[in-house]
Design a protein that fits this description.
single chain, 286 residues, alpha+beta, Aminopeptidase, 2 domains, 13-stranded mixed beta sheet
Length: 286
């Protein structure tokens, strides 16, 4: 196995295209982040773009780390994940944590420990588990109100909702400036939608940029947020179904992640036609 750390995001996108097309759901986050960085839509403190090649030079795995976030490991052969872990120990020993399927994380850690780097002696603890869902067949719920695109004049109100979503999901505050910047980009892109009832926004949902690799187009839904006083009335289901419909009409398959520990959100997504595909664990080094 040959492990490469690539400096250019555009080179990474080109080199990983065929591999990502073969694993469109499990590499969607990597693809959408790489595209956002390439187009200047998003910036991070630092970047690590990894590719693992077989002995005959075929790309068999990819991974990504955008500081300050965890390293994301795509599906790959076990030995490829071990080789990646050994290389990371030599080159990127300061990584804060890992995200990937359980077998990928375990194999990576085996290689990381084999590197005997200072960082590899740290204790790895589970942060959370996320479930990956893909739409099987959309079931539109019968809920009062209507779905529509978010409007420019609503950015300030939507910023507060997005900041509250971030606090609930990430367990940490998001600055007003960062929240507003994210909302403004989504509204400008036409990727943020509202569920409105009696002229009041009760829930919002958005989607990441649609990623197309070869003949496969994937849209990842998120965030999804319902104002606390309007919960348990079906508005989250309704706005998610509305965004899903937009993705379908744009020729994309729809997917999303949800917290494995949140039975309410999992029930909602299954009820509107999503099926479970995989589990992703988030781990951090203590």
């Amino acid at each position: 196995m040959k492990v490469e750390l690539i400096e250019s995001v555009d080179e990474f996108i080109a080199a990983s295209t065929a591999f990502r097309a073969a694993h469109p759901l499990r590499t969607n986050v990597i693809g959408s982040v790489a595209l956002a960085v390439s187009t200047g839509r998003t910036t991070y403190d630092d970047y690590r773009w990894w590719i693992v090649r077989s002995d005959n030079n075929e790309v068999v795995g990819v991974a990504m780390r955008t500081s300050p976030f965890n390293m994301i490991i795509a599906p790959m052969p076990i030995e490829a994940a071990r080789a990646l872990g050994r290389s990371v120990g030599q080159i990127d020993d300061a990584l804060p944590g890992l995200a990937g399927s359980r077998d990928m994380v375990d194999a990576f850690v085996e290689g990381y420990v084999e590197s005997k780097s200072p960082g590899s002696a740290r204790v790895l603890a589970e942060e959370r588990r996320d479930l990956l869902y893909e739409l099987e067949e959309l079931i539109t719920p019968d809920v009062e109100g209507l779905g529509r695109p978010a409007r420019t004049e609503e950015i300030e109100a939507l910023t507060e909702m997005f900041a509250q979503f971030w606090r609930e999901v990430e367990g940490a505050p998001l600055s007003r400036a960062d929240a507003r910047n994210g909302v403004k980009k989504a509204v400008t892109d036409g990727s943020l939608f509202c569920w409105e009832m009696a002229d009041d926004i009760v829930a919002i949902a958005g989607h990441a940029p649609i990623i197309t690799t070869e003949a496969v187009a994937i849209g990842r839904i998120g965030p999804v947020f319902t104002r606390p006083e309007f919960r348990r009335r079906g508005f989250g289901s309704a706005v998610t179904a509305h965004v899903t419909r937009q993705l379908i009409e744009n020729g994309a398959r729809a997917m999303l992640f949800t917290d494995a520990a949140n039975p309410t959100s999992n029930d909602i997504y299954r009820a509107i036609g999503y099926r479970l595909v995989d589990e992703v664990i988030q781990m951090h080094f203590e």
